[in-house]
Fold:
Amino acid sequence: MNATSIETLLSSLVLPAPPVELSRIGRIRAAVTEGRAAVEIVLGVPLEGLRAPIEAMVRERLEREGVSLSRLDLQSRIAAHEVQPKLAPLADIRNIIAVGSGKGGVGKSTTAVNLALALAAEGARVGLLDADIYGPSVPAMLGLSGRPDSPDGKSIEPMRAHGIEAMSIGLLVDQDTPMIWRGPMATSALTQLLEQTRWGGGEVLDYLIVDLPPGTGDIQLTLSQKIPVAGAVIVTTPQEIATLDARKALKMFEKVEVPVLGLIENMAVHVCSNCGHAEHIFGSGGGRGMAERYGVPLLGSLPLDVGIREQGDAGVPVVASSPDSAAAQAYRAAARALAVQLAQRPRAALPIPASLLG
Structure:
């Protein structure tokens, strides 16, 4: 086989989870010498959880054709992707991902925090912006306290925890201070938190996860009009009333031309720690049914696990505290699915700084 035929052969390989052809999320180059192939694969997703299965797939497929693998160079280059019309990605952030829900109480903030940690565990540079101005919960979930530094009196250094950067209005005010602000004040605070934070520490973030407040109000409108968002994730629980509200959030993002990358079904099943019995406390199939109805991917179904709540309350989320647990692996799988969906979106149009294009 020559190099071109090997490139064509490997381009059709399908990742097992999430299922996608390699050619849809990157490029493949090959060189062949005396029946031995050197292969370079550059993908637009973090690779930590994908290296072993990709290497096994490539090696097995080549050997089936009588070609041995002499070298595999597997690289991750995450690009900036298309945002709303008339907006462009920020200089220090390749992709802003909004995490929203139609209603409160579905575990949106817990999901946003653990998704950010999961993307970082997969090998990406990640930030987390708490956009819930009235009820910030990210500092407590990440175990952050104190005030962020402002080296020049104008910009703010993000705080760091568990391998990610974070910023929240909750880091700038006393814990018990209520945010009694009208809509314009809240939206101004959000844009200042985003624009005045020195994200990346000199390096470009691959992803900034934005934890939105529940609903479809002023913060969401500001996000869609002024902040370049590469995609949105909607969190729901399986019960019908939750999916009804989640549909409103989905339609809102569609109207403001923010692509919905997928749904995450939270609290999908509870497994008794004593007897192992699995029970769908909030019903079953609601998230999958909604995803099928609206033609968006179901990125993952997350468990109802007391450990997720306990570890979040302790400031050490489950992805950081118990990385080998079933719950943490569910978040990792959802994060990989999210990254794969985004990687298939069109790249941001020029002119964009080369550092953002990957």
